[in-house]
Specification:
It is built from 16 helices and nine strands. The chain is of the alpha/beta class. The protein has a five-stranded parallel beta sheet, with helices on both faces.
Length: 378
Amino acid sequence: MHGSRRRLEERLGLLRALRGRTDCATIDSFAWRLVRRWLSLAATLGFADIEPDQYERVCDAAGALLQVKDVCGWVAATFPVLLVDEAQDLTANRLRLVEGLASRLEVFAAADEFQCLNEDLQPNPACAWLAQVCYAEELIQPRRTNIAELLDAAAAVRKGAAPMSGKAFMVALTPKPPLAGAWLNGNLCWYGRGKSVAVITPTLGAFAETTVTWAAQNKTKKGAGPYSILWEESEAKAATSFLHKIALRDMNDIPSVVALLTAAGDFRATDDLIDWMDTQRRTRAKTTFTKDEIEKAIEKGFSRRRRVGKGSESGWKGMTVHGAKNREFDNVIVLWPAAIGGSDEQKRRLLYNAVTRAKERCLVLVQAKAQLSQAPFA
């Protein structure tokens, strides 16, 4: 995950002995680096004509390459130590990369099976493999806070017990979005000034969206609000949303594309694509582009944003539990809708991941009264 990568870069950079001697990357990025270096061998192994955005195929190819002694040796010559964070999220093909590298590198892996939200990875293959090949100490203690109420609430959810409300951790029943919106604005006013705040929901549905919309349009009786929270999008969804704003023709010349992009209002996407088209013009004398070429260039530009961005966690943000993984905020407000799929165990995992994003305070707003007597609240 890019959030994990950025935080590792920041914290390892504080260690003088390691400064300039580490390289932090997502496992997908590392896999593509490996495939690009050994492209001919990858083709020989059955992975010809591979593209960087074919993430599963790239990881399959990298896993196959790392079964070759010379490839592992090439990695080990530069990186004798491998640190894997969030190892519980490794799919089978990504785990194969780590298994291959473990034959030549010294490997340290941090994993907490309970924080895996992918039900297809339960039981967890990475945790099972670690238990077989080494003495594994499963990490179960949140490290981002020392607030007792937050730690106790997280521990209770993890054990399947009822988390107790207090001042730093609170569960409140808010059946209607206007009531939840009033709670949201009140807490943003009381606790959000100058703090990072994440509004987190298991699923971005009507309850969460209507609550945030109400908060952006109304004040509470005590004058708190209106406050705007923008929902984060994945780079793929952001690219799709942007493409829906522009009406590309089957064939497009540079001036017409620039006019469409400028009208769409995303200046960074415009600049990125103009640079790409200018490079194509200078290097290939190309001045017209198909719709498919433009769309792929835009999608790559949005993907690059996430990869190279600094990713500040300051301010107020809205996101799903999956989007919040491996991140931390001063305060967290969880919007828990009436309809959430999955087993009781999965619901506990979702709430645990949301609660453990908080460093100072966590408020959980529950839509349905019946949920308070069910998992994960009981």
